[in-house]
Amino acid sequence: MPTILGQNQYGKAENRVVKITRDGDTHHIKDLNVSVALSGDLEEVHLSGSNANCLPTDTTKNTVYAFAKEYGIESAEQFGIHLARHFVSSQEPIKRARIRIEEYAWERIETSDGNSRFIGADEVKHSFVRKGQEVRLTEITYDGENWQVISGLKDLIVMNSTNSEFWGYIKDQYTTLKEAYDRILATQVASRWRFNWTSDEQRMPNWERSYEQVKKHMLQAFAETYSLSLQQTLYQMGSRIINNRSEVDEIRFSLPNKHHFLVDLEPFGLKNDTAEGAVYYAADRPYGLIEATVLRDGVEARIPMDLTNL
Ligand SMILES: O=c1[nH]c(=O)c2[nH]c(=O)[nH]c2[nH]1
Questions:
Q1: Is position 12 annotated as part of the catalytic site?
Q2: Most CB contacts within 10 A, which of 5, 73, 170, 242?
Q3: Residue 193 scores a pLDDT above 90
Q4: What start and end residues bound the annotated signal peptide (predicted)?
Q5: C-beta 230 within 6 A of ligand 1
Q6: Cβ–Cβ < 8 Å for 136, 105
Q7: Is 177 in the pocket of ligand 1 (CB under 6 A)?
């Protein structure tokens, strides 16, 4: 049976790059995990074994490290754009580059006098603790003409200990869930948002500020929404971002509902009442999984449905 080569891409995945910038004796860290995927005229590499059009994955790795040194890392997005442009514009057979980056944040360790800026001890200028919060993400795709930048985050764990209800749902012969008028709402946010910056002619967003602002609106909407379902909270989070950040046209969330169930303490003669502060069992599985995209009216949805392997 004849066969044909379908979609293909290649490159070096998970290049771990740590760049230290020295500002006098104050240091700054950028800690990235960069994955390169290239595609183009690569049929012969697969079909005949000719490597004439193949830029080695080893070279793509070296380019990541050389660019970090030569040009620095202003933001994950800027770094990814720079790499994507390089691969597509410098190698004729390479028609498309996709750069995915995870960024791990570090913060300065405070001195014993509680101030990390006006210090006698100089270790704070170069001593860091890795932030336990979210991982920042970006994916840059470039075909020599158009850009697509989808940034995001994962593992941002949030909880509201009240202001969440869930009732009025369908009840069939299998429904046992009790209606909740005051419950815990907790989730581990995975999200991707797409920028409307698509060509060199447009003004590029300020990537660092944009990330901080999107995250701020996301968290504030989570905190400030009186929730009748995680679905409703998700929509509030997304629309708050679309309404406040003109550079973002689309945002998708994958929100596991981290269920907290009231423990039955009746057998021990104890009343476990939410109004007085209750004891919960934090279940890890199964979990409800609430996923949706929120879009600016009139734009096309481009973020893939399944965020897990992005
Ligand atoms: O916020 C929720 N949405 C649901 O769809 C759902 N289903 C469920 O059992 N609990 C919840 N909570």
A1: yes
A2: 73
A3: yes
A4: none
A5: yes
A6: yes
A7: yes
- Choose, from 57, 59, 141, 198, the residue flagged as catalytic: 57
Mutate to test the pocket of ligand 1, among 166, 226, 255, 290 (most ligand atoms within 8 A of CB): 166
Tokens of 116: 């990390």
Q: Is the CB of 257 under 6 A from ligand 1?
A: yes
**Distance from C-alpha of 199 to C-alpha of 214, rounded to nearest angstrom:** 22
User: What are the structure tokens assigned to 135, written together?
Assistant: 């991982």
Token pair 């057998």 is found at 267
Closest CA to 158 of 34, 255, 244, 50: 255
Question: From the CB of 289, is ligand 1 less than 6 Å away?
Answer: no
User: Would you call 57 a catalytic residue per the annotation?
Assistant: yes
The predicted-structure confidence for 4-17, as pLDDT tens digits, reads as follows 999 999 999 999 99
Query: What is the spatial distance between Cα 208 and Cα 191, in angstroms, rounded to a whole number?
Result: 17
Three-state SS letters, 10-30: ECCCCEEEEEEEEECCEEEEE
- 308 given a catalytic annotation: no
- Quote the CA–CA distance of 238 and 295 in Å, as a whole number: 8
First to last CA, the chain: 34
